[in-house]
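Title: Prediction job returns without error message
Component: structure pipeline
Severity: low
Priority: P3
Assignee: unassigned

Description:
Job completed but the reporter wants confirmation the result is attached to the right record. Sequence as submitted:
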Amino acid sequence: MKPLFLSESPNGQIWNSAAQLDNIPVIATQSLVPLGARAVVIAPHPGDEVVTCGGLLQLLASLGHPLQLLSITDGSASHPGSRQWSEKRLSVFRPQESVEALRRLGLPMHSLKWVRGGFTDNALQDQERQLTDFIGRYLRPGDVVFSTWREDSNDDHEVVGRASAKAAELAGASFHDVPVWAWHWPERDHTLIPWQRARKLRLDTWTVARKSHATHAYASQLKGEPAIGIAPMLPPVILERMRLPYEIVFL
């Protein structure tokens, strides 16, 4: 059985305690995305593009790579039963948060290709084939595709990861998984991480600062509603991890 989303102890999670982290080989941006290649980031929910690849997106933009972002859902089901954050409000508000987050990353909004899929979050399990077809429409041979890890212990992350990998294969593009929730599994579950596939992309101080600042643009995700059992989608431990001087992808 896979671990739950978050370890019961923030101090004992894989991201800040696994010994293997220090030994992950470093990869250069140019090796990950060859010169002239287009990078495509596929986000299950608004905010996943920053949490997974906020640093990489900045590095690619600085090198002049063409960028494509696919937002599969609008994230409007993140607060079920909430009066403050109803689905109707979130369907408008969360994409606006993404616009602000991308601006904070310093991305060239005039040239960034951004497509919103309009799928319903927390309801993707039975739509993998439709997702594969949708994603495939926007891929072309030679693209380098990034999406959430296919074993990340979040249903939406996993199905979007599988659909993205399949669409990339069909299009003649390469695909890389990026873990999100997996870093917050208890350290005892470190053997479930495919360390041999992991590569570390180093980020400088300013790149990390912009990424952290961009993450805070998702105001709707920073606070939960304990009265109705809703925890923050971006709890403090996630925000702390965003300040690490690297990102990790699986080749």
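Comment from assignee: result matches the submitted record. The mean pLDDT is 93.
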